[in-house]
Specification:
Elements lengths: L1 H23 L6 H25 L9
Helix pairs in contact: 1-2
């Protein structure tokens, strides 16, 4: 559920950022393009850290 929420809000913020960037550069806002770009970045930012941590191979020492 945490990942779904992060993806949802990341896409919403990406749409807002795309709208603001289009306004500042005086270009037309393309919501589909903004949605695709923000979705790709959000998926990378959400799933990349756990994936890297999984393959890091760090083992915790259990010595007492």
């Amino acid at each position: 559920m945490r990942f779904v929420t992060a993806i949802f809000w990341g896409v919403i913020y990406g749409e807002i950022t795309g709208f603001l960037a289009a306004s500042l550069t005086s270009s037309t806002f393309q919501p589909v393009q903004s949605l695709i770009i923000s979705a790709v970045f959000v998926v990378l930012l959400v799933f990349l850290p756990p994936l890297m941590q999984h393959f890091a191979g760090t083992t915790k020492s259990t010595n007492k």
